[in-house]
Specification:
Layout lengths: L17 H12 L6 H9 L6 H11 L12 E6 L4 E6 H4 L9 H8 L9 E6 L5 E7 L2 H4 L3 H5 L10 H5 L11 E4 L12 H4 L4 H5 L6 H24 L6 E4 L16 H15 L4 E3 L6 E3 L6 H28 L1
Parallel strand pairs: 5-6
Antiparallel strand pairs: 1-2, 1-4, 3-4, 7-8
Helix pairs in contact: 1-12, 3-5
């Protein structure tokens, strides 16, 4: 929404448009119904048919393709046929026409959460006219926290040794401002324990009290491992303040539901986001793995303001340098 271009190569949407968009469309993407028929259907096929979402995304994005975004983007998906992640990026689309998919196909693919929405199939063509197929499900299967992927096209992401971190090439990390926005979890609710899990068979791991413990375990683990990795990288080059992770692990009840798209629940999520701004900026304790307040005492809102000022100052500096260069 923020990077799709309008006719003037400006963003199709502004940040302030996103909440009204969700309030208007989520109840139609996830129509609320209950009862034995819905539960039986969810055992046989996706809980939702996805028709409204696909129609809406195609209408909004039209024929826009990945290479046209107003800034570089990285979008993780998972190819269920090949059983491997597939990462779409502006970087790849500019080099390989078969990667330059319609933005609508990329968005539908990365949103196709297993059990909730149908997998998405589409084709592209390479420079020789040969077809390439994609069979995609939700990108969270591959990268529930895509922070590492955002750095992948620009340099060495996985240092091989402490010597690599100390090398001149590692200084590139000082040039990055990494803002990682989580969408909230119910980790602190502690829904499961070993005594319960010891009794679960296949069905228990797949469905328990409205949740899927197996999916919870995979998604929380992958997200936290990336956060740990990013924290280690930035601490190793002594620029921890350049990495800001904003996440709420205290969601519970309906606010932690993936598809409870009632207006009441969405209003609660809005309040959660607003209150999160006033909470202390936090980072992962690398010794304990616990997310805890940073030592500087700043709130998330103050940390975001600092990031915004850095970006604004950098933009002004680049414009001044460009003006000086063109004046020579």
């Amino acid at each position: 929404m923020l990077t799709a271009p309008d006719q003037n190569r400006r963003p199709l949407y502004e940040a302030e448009d996103i909440v009204p968009f969700y309030l208007n469309h989520c109840p139609k993407i996830f129509p609320q119904s209950s009862g034995p028929l819905m539960r039986m259907r969810a055992l046989r096929e996706p809980k939702y048919d996805g028709k409204y979402l696909r129609k809406l995304v195609r209408k909004i994005l039209g024929t826009r393709r990945l290479h046209e975004t107003v800034t570089r983007i990285v979008v993780p998906t998972f190819d269920i046929k090949l059983l491997q992640p597939h990462v779409f990026s502006t970087f790849e689309a500019e080099m390989d026409v078969s990667e330059d998919a319609l933005l609508s196909d990329v968005c539908i693919g990365t949103s196709s959460a297993p059990t909730y929405l149908p997998a998405h199939h589409f084709k592209t063509k390479d420079s020789g006219g040969n077809e390439r197929e994609f069979h995609l499900v939700d990108g969270g299967v591959a990268a529930n926290n895509p922070a590492l992927l955002a750095m992948k096209p620009t340099g060495k992401v996985f240092p091989g040794s402490p010597d690599d971190l100390a090398s001149p090439q590692s200084l590139q990390y000082e040039k990055y401002l990494m803002l990682s926005l989580g969408t909230g979890t119910s980790k602190m609710e502690e829904k499961h324990n070993a005594k319960m899990a010891a009794k679960w068979g296949i069905l228990g791991w797949l469905y328990k009290d409205g949740h899927c413990p197996l999916v919870d375990a995979f998604t929380f683990a992958s997200g936290d491992m990336v956060d740990l990795h990013m924290s280690l990288i930035f601490r190793s080059v002594k620029c921890e303040h350049n990495y800001l992770r904003i996440q709420d692990d205290t969601l519970s009840g309906n606010t932690s539901s993936t598809d409870k798209a009632t207006e009441e629940k969405m209003r609660e999520l809005i309040k959660t986001g607003e209150s999160l701004l006033q909470k202390p900026a936090s980072r992962t304790n690398l010794d304990t793995g616990i997310f805890e307040p940073a030592h500087n005492g700043a709130t998330n809102q103050e940390a975001l303001t600092r990031f915004a000022k850095k970006l604004s100052d950098e933009r002004k500096l680049r414009k001044e340098r460009l003006h000086q260069w063109t004046s020579i």
